[in-house]
Specification:
The protein is mainly alpha-helical. 63% of the residues lie in helices and 0% in strands. The protein has 16 helices and no strands. It has helices at residues 30-44, 53-56, 59-68, 77-83, 95-107, 127-147, 162-188, 193-216, 219-224, 229-254, 259-287, 301-310, 312-321, 331-339, 343-362, 369-378. Helix 5 crosses helix 10 (229-254) and helix 6 runs antiparallel to helix 7 (162-188). The relative contact order is 0.14.
Length: 384
């Protein structure tokens, strides 16, 4: 099977109203984070970026790369995604596969397994679990590429020619489909019905989650829609947490671990994903200085919680007050308004909750280097 194409993604969408942002694993302390990732990769046997080697050398990918070159000079997101082949120590797309591998090693072989041979393991991980880690990355990358499709109705002159942007959209759709098809082929080759069911349902969750995000990112919904904390968690889990949570559970199933181990692995993946998303959403609000123009997404957790607390009428008033004479947003004024209420503190509390729950879940596994690495990955969630 092919491994993921865009393994290290440094692509960030400008955080403006009505435009989607991509939630990635990130750390407030890039230098420390790099060491955490580097140490974890040594534990599982090789740098996780090697997962992409087979696909990068394939003829199919070479054809895709040649077509992407035609987008040079435009502002199409697919071009930025392709540039993200270079490792970025702040954003780690490959983290999902790495977490699956670490959990596989932390759990070890099942004592009840009868048809799994320990000598097939490499660095304490079964080949099927390594394949699963690659499949997880491949699915995630496919959806990131799909989500880079540009709304042609919102194009500006600086974005590029309409025909180029249309071509970029076609390439994003076809490339994403290509990656997803290879993931499904690899999934079938695992020959495990329950794992196929788990990962297939995760793909369905991703589709549903992205649909929710798209429908909530219209200009009208940015002003009028109220989303509770519970609703935000449910929707965010679909688009950012389900794939990792179910992949962690599937890794336990491949090693024939019991339901308790599967449930704990699922919880670790779920809470880790939600915690990292909250931490990422909080960065503009906890790192910015007074009066600093820091653009942020209206779908970020602190903004969602703030809007729910103050109500749609007051939110609309704050939006109007933050607009300049040119009808542009004064982000410093709007950011101060959000920070003045309890939206930020609510998001911080929820972030710490998910971070602690992830650490809690992993404690049930035997003490080891792999478990320590998983703890180190979860620990930065609660630090700002």
């Amino acid at each position: 099977m092919f491994a993921p194409v865009w393994t290290r993604l440094s692509f960030t969408v400008q955080s403006v109203p009505g435009r989607r942002t991509l939630g990635l694993f990130s750390s407030p302390a890039p230098s420390n984070w790099s060491k955490v990732v580097s140490d974890a990769e040594k534990i599982v046997g090789y740098p996780s970026s090697f997962m992409s080697l087979r696909c990068l050398l394939s003829d199919e990918f070479s054809n895709v790369a040649m077509h992407v070159k035609k987008l040079v000079g435009t502002q199409h997101p697919l071009l930025n995604t392709a540039r993200g082949f270079v490792y970025d120590s702040r954003n780690n797309l490959q983290m999902r596969g790495l977490v699956v591998l670490l959990l596989s090693k932390a759990a070890g072989p099942s004592h009840t397994s009868s048809d799994l041979l320990s000598h097939d393991m490499v660095s304490g991980i079964y080949p099927s679990q390594r394949n699963l880690a690659e499949i997880t990355e491949l699915i995630h990358t496919a959806f990131l590429v799909h989500r880079g499709v540009v709304n042609l109705k919102e194009l500006t002159a600086s974005d590029g020619l309409l025909k180029d942007m249309e071509f970029g959209n076609k390439m994003a759709i076809l490339s994403g489909d290509f990656l997803l098809a290879n993931a499904c082929t690899g999934l079938a080759q695992l020959n495990n019905t329950k794992v196929v069911e788990l990962i297939s349902s995760a793909i369905g969750d991703l589709v549903q989650g992205i649909y929710y995000e798209s429908s909530n990112n219209t200009e009208e919904n940015n002003i009028t829609t109220e989303v509770s904390t519970a609703a935000w968690e449910e929707q965010t889990f679909l688009s950012h947490g389900a794939l990792l949570a179910k992949s962690c559970q599937a890794a336990m199933e491949l090693a024939q671990h019991d339901k308790k181990s599967q449930r704990l692995a699922y919880k670790y993946g779920k809470h880790l994903s939600l915690g990292h998303k909250l931490n990422s959403d909080l960065q503009p609000f906890v790192k910015s200085n007074v009066g600093e123009q820091v653009p942020f997404s209206f779908s970020a957790a602190p903004v969602i919680f703030h809007r729910h607390i103050i109500g749609p009428e007051r939110w609309q008033q704050q939006l109007q007050q933050a607009k300049t004479m040119r009808n542009q947003l004064d982000y410093a004024k709007l950011l101060a308004a959000v920070k003045s209420e309890k939206g930020v503190s609510s998001a911080v509390n929820l972030c710490c909750y998910h971070g602690n729950r992830a650490l809690e879940a992993i404690q049930a596994f035997p003490s080891s280097e792999a478990r320590s690495a998983l703890e180190n990955i979860a620990a930065p969630i609660t630090k700002f």
